[in-house]
Amino acid sequence: MSQRAQGKNAGVLPDSGAESHLGVIRVIVLTSGTDPLGGPAPMSVETTAALARLGDPVELLRAEGPDELSSLVPDPSIDLVLFDRLDAHATARGLAAIPADGPPSIVVIDGDREADALEAFRAGASDCVHFGPEYENVLPVVLLEQVGRWRGDRQRRVSRQRIRWLEELNAGIVSAMPAGLVVVDDGGLIVAENPEFARLFPTRAAPGTESTEFLAARLPVEIMEAVQAAERDSGDGRMGAESLQRLVRASDSEGTPRAYEVRHRRLDEGDRSLLVLSDVTESEWLSERLESLRRDTRDIIENINSALIVVDLAGRISFANPAAEKILGGRDGDLGGRQIDDWFAPPGDETNPIAACLEDGARSRGAETLVQRGDGAWIPVGISCSPRLDGSGQSRGVVAVFQDLSEIKELELQVRQTEKMASIGQLAAGVAHEVNNPMGFIHANLHQMSEYLTDLEKYFEATDRLQRAAVEGDLEVIRAAAEDVQVIAREIDLEFVRSDFEKALMESGEGAERIRHIVKDLRDFSRPDLPARSPADVNQAIDSTASIVYTMMKHSVALEKNYQELPKIEAYPMQLKQVFMNLLVNAHYAIEQAIEQAIEQASERSPEARGEGEQGVIRIETEAVGDEIVVRIADTGIGIPEDARSRIFEPFFTTKPVGAGTGLGLSTCFNIVERHGGRITVESEQGVGTVFEVWLPTTPPASDAAS
Amino acid sequence: MADRPVVLLVDDEPRMLSALKRTLRREGLVIETASNAAEALARMATGPAVDLVISDHKMPGRTGIELLREIRRSSPATARILLSGWTSEIEPRALAAAGCAAVLGKPWDDAELKAEIQAALDDA
Question: Which of A432, A441, A610 sits opposite B15 (nearest CB)?
Answer without folding.
Answer: A441
